[in-house]
Write a structure and sequence with these properties.
There is one protein chain. By secondary structure, the chain is α+β, with helices and mostly antiparallel strands. The chain is built from 27 helices and 17 strands. Strands 1, 6, 7, 8, 9 and 10 form a six-stranded antiparallel β-sheet that branches. Strand 11 and strand 12 form a beta hairpin. The longest helix is centred in the first third of the chain and has 16 residues. The N terminus is likely disordered.
Length: 603
């Protein structure tokens, strides 16, 4: 009888052990307000840390910026001025231009969120209908100055940089994202949550409420109890800046504490370049890391405690565990062995270099050496397990698209595509699209019924439109919209194709839908003006062109359409003035130069 009972219990145990994950209890998110009820001291200190203060609504309390003087930032490349100011308790940014001593353009946007703890920067985000964008100016707290936001100094995209999930899921807690969009959110939390490092906490809370301490420990992730690779993966998820390439079918929401990062995404970094969030890469280059294989981020950093509140003697104590008192000279080890340095991607900021090294005797770096550090020498994978040629190819495609549009980058992508055993059609579409090889894109494109990715459908449609194959373009753009119904650009593309085909009512339908989603989309307003022009409703058309130019004064199609309207009204002097003004802000614009010559010599 006893043996039978033991056999029965054994079967039950095996059935439970072999049950699928979906049959196991699944923890859900509870939020930091629940966590603080039992873990008040950790919560209180964490909220003073960089992670706790990473993101919040734009309030005077959140802002680390100075407004005592009248800050004006000038973009010398595109000739825009910016002035941040408070209107009562609302932060706003004025963008304007001057021409011949007069203000000829201005736009004001309300800032809804501030991103950045203020330890290094405060950047600014604005939102419309849930679509989240970055404003073009940042406050750099270390130097107490306003300047162009990182990346905007080279080419100012003004108010159009979309804050997609790759960005928001590192700089903040997980938002409620519309998956059929690029950057639309229904709710955005403030600051990074406890559960980003400890895992979803509902089962842990339930066990704690029942007084079951052992179960409470089991149902929460303790990072220090994770393996070396799991610990590194947890920190690398956000403290490893580079080109992130998702594994097939994964999103930036899919990583959870305890996973290996490689199972969700791989990150590739430019060789030899020092980026703001290069902490992990630089640490991995250290002999301390390489020889110990036990040194992780949380060896020295408590996520619950601000770096500013951690005494230097604590960091010394970590070093002395291996190096002994003979190395200690009554000063902070990190001052000499982990010096502060500027980064290649963020101006006006000095950060701790996490490559632990013997100090260089050189007092300065020559300009030639600085230029060598900025030179692109290829991408290197930062992996814990392994990578593939296909992932490397995807990394080069993304790097070309996001950072460095040089042919050599695409050559590297092609090299790794040739090394890959099997390349999905989506990747070939992406490669040929970036090459501008429109016919090649169409040659590898499948039927729309096969496509599940909106961006692949968009690229195929755009390739067809470049060849004036409007009906084919429409098929793929409709598929793109089916996959991403909340992407305003796709409405613009479809409407433009219908305008080219003379199907005005269909164009009007998609233009109005697109503008309803994003009322500050310059291209949609211009195309709506084209619709009204074709309907012989000139006044409505002019209103739309001017609305487009009020959002983007350099958008040439809208300017050209406005000039055509003015020419029909015989306003030659106004046309000359506008063309000269346009060329002042856009010198070398060939179409504007040609039109000015035509107008000046007469028709």
């Amino acid at each position: 009888m006893g043996n039978a009972t033991n056999w029965f219990i054994g079967i039950i145990f095996l059935l439970f052990a072999c049950s699928t994950p979906s049959e196991q209890p699944k923890a859900t998110f509870v939020g930091k307000q629940v966590c603080k009820q039992c873990h008040w001291s950790h919560y209180e200190s964490f909220m003073r840390s960089g992670m706790g203060q990473s993101f919040a609504k734009a309030t005077r309390e959140k802002s680390a910026a100075t407004f005592a003087y009248h800050p004006v930032i000038y973009d010398s490349t595109r000739k825009f001025y910016y002035h941040p100011f408070w209107e009562k308790d609302t932060l706003k940014v004025l963008e304007f231009r001057l021409y011949e001593g007069e203000t000829v353009y201005k736009r004001i946007e309300t800032i809804h969120y501030i991103i950045g703890s203020g330890h290094h920067t405060n950047s600014h985000l604005w939102q419309i209908n849930g679509y989240l964008f970055q404003a073009p100016i940042t406050f750099y707290t270390q130097k107490q100055l306003w300047d162009m936001a990182p990346g905007f100094e080279d080419y100012n995209v003004r108010f159009s940089r979309a804050i997609a999930t790759e960005c928001i899921t590192c700089h903040n807690g997980y938002p409620q994202w519309e998956p059929q969009s690029l950057n639309r959110y229904y709710a955005i939390p403030s600051g990074i949550e406890c559960e980003r490092c400890h895992g979803n906490g509902s089962l842990h809370v339930q066990a704690a409420q029942k007084g079951d301490k052992e179960a409470a420990k089991r149902w929460i992730v303790h990072p220090k109890r994770l393996s070396f690779q799991q610990q590194m993966s947890l920190c690398m998820r956000c403290h490893l800046q580079g080109v992130a390439v998702l594994q097939p079918g994964k999103t930036f929401f899919d990583f959870h504490p305890g996973m290996l990062l490689d199972s969700i995404l791989q990150v590739f970094v430019p060789r030899g370049q020092f980026w703001m969030a290069s902490h992990v890469v630089r640490l991995m280059e250290s002999r301390c890391y390489q020889q110990s294989q036990q040194l992780t981020c949380i060896t020295c950093h408590s996520p619950h405690r601000s770096v500013k509140e951690t005494p230097l003697r604590f960091y010394n104590s970590i070093c002395l565990q291996c190096h002994g008192d003979s190395h200690f000279r009554d000063s902070a080890c990190v001052v000499c062995h982990m010096p502060r340095s500027g980064s290649a991607d963020i101006p006006h900021v000095a950060i701790t270099d996490h490559k632990i090294q013997i100090p260089s005797k050189k007092r300065y770096i020559s300009e030639k050496e600085k230029e060598a550090l900025r030179k692109f020498l290829g991408l290197q994978p930062v992996v814990l397990t392994s990578t593939t040629a296909l992932m490397k190819a995807k990394a080069y495609l993304k790097y070309y698209e996001s950072f460095l549009p040089q042919e050599s980058v695409l050559d590297s992508a092609y090299y790794y595509l040739q090394q890959s055993d099997e390349v999905p059609w989506e990747v070939w579409v992406h490669y040929y699209f970036l090459r501008g090889a429109w016919e090649k894109v169409l040659s590898v494109a499948p039927d729309t019924s096969v496509i599940q990715d909106g961006w692949s459908a968009y690229r195929i449609g755009e390739s067809a439109s470049q060849l004036k194959k409007w009906h084919l373009a429409l098929r793929y753009w409709h598929k793109a919209l089916q996959c991403m119904a909340f992407h305003p650009d796709f409405y613009s593309k479809i409407a433009g194709a219908y305008l080219a085909l003379g199907k005005l009512q269909k164009a009007y339908y998609y233009l109005k839908k697109g503008i309803a989603l994003h009322p500050k989309h310059a291209v949609l307003w211009n195309d709506l003006g084209v619709y009204y022009m074709k309907k012989q409703q000139q006044d409505s058309a002019l209103y739309c062109f001017e609305r487009s130019l009020s959002l983007d004064p350099d958008y040439w199609p809208a300017m050209y359409n406005k000039l055509q309207y003015l020419l029909t009204q015989g306003q030659i002097d106004e046309v000359k003035y506008l063309l000269k003004r346009y060329l002042y802000f856009n010198p070398g614009h060939v179409h504007a130069q040609r039109l000015l010559k035509v107008v000046e010599v007469g028709f």
